[in-house]
Amino acid sequence: LKDEVNRMDRLSLVGQMAASITHEIRNPMAVIRGFVQLLNERSPDDQQSYFRIVIDELDRANAIINDFLSLAQNRIVEKEASNLNELMNELLPLLWADANLRGQIIDMRLGEEMDLLHMNSKEMKQLVLNLARNGMEAMNDKGTLRLETLNMANTIQLRVTDNGVGIAPEKLEKLFEPFYTTKTNGTGLGLALCLSIVERHNGKIHVESEPGRGTSFIVSFCKPGRNCW
Ligand code: ADP
Ligand code: MG
Questions:
Q1: Residue 204: in which H helix or E strand, if any?
Q2: What is the ipTM of this complex?
Q3: Which is the closest atom of ligand 1 to the Cα of 187?
Q4: Could you report the per-residue pLDDT of 184-224, keeping only the tens digit for each?
Q5: C-beta of residue 189 within 8 angstroms of C-beta of residue 130
Q6: How far is the CA of 136 from the centre of ligand 2 (A)?
Q7: What's the pLDDT tens digit per position in 114-149?
Q8: How many C-beta atoms lie closer than 10 Å to residue 228's C-beta?
Q9: Which residues contact 46 (CB under 8 A, 6 or more apart)?
Q10: How far apart are the CA of 47 and the centre of ligand 2, in A?
């Protein structure tokens, strides 16, 4: 009976996810269809802006499909004992380039004598990049994104802090829901994916934010062999 219930749970979860993704992909598709139809009828000047919209919407549909696939698959990931600092250093050029394009600054502060963590580095990179991109997108061109690693007693912490728009307290609980987004080109899947990655790495994630001041995402990973929660 227990197996049967689990199976039903999984089936209804798959059904719910299929319904959401169908809905999310239909929006850009409807926009694309409308503008392609208009392209037929309009002047070359109008056509150029319509092409832009069509391409943006195709990119959005593509981003939704990619994020959704990462969320749905790879439930069993291979892990290796690795140093979080090394991974941060590997990501630095990428982060720096991204921030530079926006006129922003990266301030990386790595903790000392870090214990190794069992991690899947592909997933862990995806986690850091998603949190960093959200931080950058929340800031203007005077923003500084701080990325910190800290060696605590039982955990290793990763903190991603921006001095951007911040998040209203009543919105905090919505952040990790799939498809919750306040961005015109957002997928709303970034933080849902982050949460599932953190859970697969024996971690916890929480948010501290002050509207108008900025936001910190704090991820704590339990060190191997410790009892954290
Ligand atoms: P997306 O970035 O595609 O909108 P996410 O799941 O990554 O989806 O984020 C969901 C929402 O959470 C964002 O649309 C935004 O409103 C809010 N959010 C996430 N990170 C931050 C941040 N650092 N500062 C302000 N708001 C944020
Ligand atoms: Mg995002």
A1: strand 203-210
A2: 0.99
A3: 3
A4: 888 888 999 999 999 999 999 999 999 999 999 999 999 99
A5: no
A6: 10
A7: 999 999 998 999 999 999 999 999 999 989 999 999
A8: 14
A9: 38
A10: 30
Task: Kindly tell me if the per-residue pLDDT of 18 is higher than 90.
Answer: no
Predicted TM-score (pTM) of this structure: 0.83
Query: Which residue's structure tokens are 């009828």?
Result: 41
| Whether the Cβ atoms of residue 150 and residue 109 lie closer than 8 Å to each other | no
In angstroms, rounded to a whole number, what is the distance separating the alpha carbons of residues 193 and 189? 6
| 14 CA → ligand 1 middle, Å | 24
Question: Distance between CA atoms of 212 and 36, rounded to whole angstroms?
Answer: 40
Q: Give the relative orientation of helices 2-41 and 44-72 as an angle to the nearest 10 degrees.
A: 170
Identify which of 19, 116, 129, 26 has the alpha carbon closest to the alpha carbon of residue 70.
129
Residue labelled with tokens 């380039």: 97
